[in-house]
Amino acid sequence: MSLTLLNFNGLRNLQPIEMSPSSRINIISGANGSGKTSLLEGIHILGMGRSFRTRQLKNAIQSDVPYMTLYGRLAGEPEVTLGVRRLRAQRELELRLKGDKNTRLAQLVEAMPLQLINPDAFRLLEGSPAGRREFLDWGVFHVKHDFLGIWKRTRRALKHRNALLRRGRIQPQEIAVWEQELATWGEQMDTLRRAWFSEFLPVFEETLKALLPLSELSLHYARGWDKQRSLSSVLHDSRATDQQMGFTQQGPQRADLRIRVNKQPAVEVLSRGQQKLVVSALKLAQGRFLERIAQRHCIYLIDDLPAELDEQNRQQFCQLLEEMQCQAFITSVESSALSSIWRTDTSVNMFHVKHGDHGLSHLVQDS
Description:
single-stranded DNA binding; alpha/beta; Rossmann fold; single chain; 12 helices
């Protein structure tokens, strides 16, 4: 799974770009503010339908143009094309997969598995459980094909139960229907999550050991309600307190991955550099696990890899990337920080983003 062509128009401060990333490793250098991260953002939008820099996708559209168009081509037999178009005046995305106008976002996400490693990735350790649930569910989605349908049914049941809790007077028979729905699908979601986690954990531990030998670190899956009780009984017994709060307090929507060092939250114990290595191990383990289980390959977007990593740690990180069958797009202010770190048999493309006229930057490939 690798991109062979990228074509971006109307993306932030970038001039129209056509890029042929023929190599597995693609280094993108340039001064701060030149547009390196914007290039990664375009790939992220192309594969995920959303930005990692802004909640409002219209903010990613160049200020003086009415729309943004992103196009990509994936290697394969036959090749797979992807397209995303966003008009400033419309909230809806226009999606294309293999030219199909009726493409759903889940199809786009499935076609091009992406993992992002950037400064915001620290939220896996220091942020709310929502980010860790997203990480967890990304993994389950890509290897458990019935997960998406179960996730949608669980979310629908939860939405209806919460609406009833906020109504005031509750008819017991009415809320019991949605509690049963939530219990049925929520238990199935938990089963898939637990199965994925039990297989993923050894891959993560192996990956972490290669980056940062830290035997005291533990990773645990918490399903979101008392592990000794059924979800049905928990929902029934908590109905009164849930009504006071106005939402469902326990269930699969509260699942979490707990990352601890000697039983303390990892974020409170580890240095910033160690945190980056733990987060990197989680992200790289996703790709390694996907390769082993589904024979599919991630594309990695890595923003400012040298930051907070010394030369030895950078080398270990890149060595793991080389062992994987993945494609990576890596940004750095100085290309020299990454140019000589690879094996001689690793194919590496070097690109440079330069400030140009009218505040727009352009991309050139180094010879």
